[in-house]
Amino acid sequence: MAVFTTRSAAFLGLAVVLCVIAGEANAQQLSPNFYSTSCPNLASIVRSGMTSAVQTERRMGASILRLFFHDCFVNGCDGSILLDDTSTFTGEKNAGPNANSARGFEVIDALKTQVEATCRATVSCADILALAARDGVNLLGGPTWSVPLGRKDSRTASQSAANANLPGPGSSLATLITMFGNKNLSPRDMTALSGAHTIGRSQCQFFRNRIYNETNINASFAALRQGTCPRSGGDSNLAPFDVQTADGFDNAYYHNLVGQRGLLHSDQELFNGGSQDALVQQYSNSPSQFSADFVTAMLKMGGLLPSSGTQTEVRLNCRRPN
Known about the structure:
- This protein is mostly helical.
- It has helices at 9-21, 42-56, 59-72, 105-118, 125-139, 159-165, 173-181, 187-194, 204-213, 219-226, 252-258, 265-268, 277-285, 287-302, and strands spanning 153-154, 201-203, 238-240, 312-313.
- 46% of the residues lie in helices and 3% in strands.
- Strands 1-4 form a two-stranded antiparallel ribbon. It has a two-stranded antiparallel sheet with strand order 2-3.
- Helix 2 (42-56) packs across helix 5 (125-139), helix 3 packs across helix 5 (125-139) and helix 13 crosses helix 14 (287-302).
- Keywords: Calcium, Disulfide bond, Glycoprotein, Heme, Hydrogen peroxide, Iron, Metal-binding, Oxidoreductase, Peroxidase, Pyrrolidone carboxylic acid, Secreted, Signal.
């Protein structure tokens, strides 16, 4: 991890200026060309780093995507999830939805170090995370898209906001629609974004109740998951969201839902006699429609920015304010 305590006075002065003017960023429009002059190699640096990370551990693509979700849903896409706790605030890393499950921070640290070496004090951690999430999806076989850039990093984080804003694995369909709606994301956006669960893993503690107590679940699937998730103990044991292609970004997640093989209660809620059944069926039959809607929803979510009164900057170290 890079340490930024020995910069020159001029460089530290630049950091102060960045902090002062960063509040203006919220009023500007994000643009894919934001760094075309100031950091023209940004996309290739992030792509190379994510390629290495995913080659080392394919699950990392899902982990970085989850970080992006959990960042944007709490006070906008501002890199706040990346901040370590300090003596003055308790951040988001140890909020209920993140504690002992959010991962990939070291990958973002490495990307930040590489970007800083080329474009010092220029690119926000929030933008690096947005690019890394896109590349993680694409490297696992999913779509790609042009990422609007120009976000700034928050100087603080809120554990209570993370607990309040992130939907849990036991959420009902009504709760999911409401929580996504609070972020100006439609039910269609919510169902498309939930397709992120076509990659990644979940801990036993988050799906135990479903596989032992719920009835809208395929019996053989429940038995399979019970093999690694006992009634008690083994809380951190992992199972793939998608039993078919665990690390391939495709539409199999929706096939699973139609077959009552959703891993989490909140997953199966999307296909349980409710308002999203027809859309789930559509996505299960049309991977191209799912991909198109997923990209649209990712762009909408990625456009969530912190409120205008938030103190922001380009952090030099993603784990702490300048």
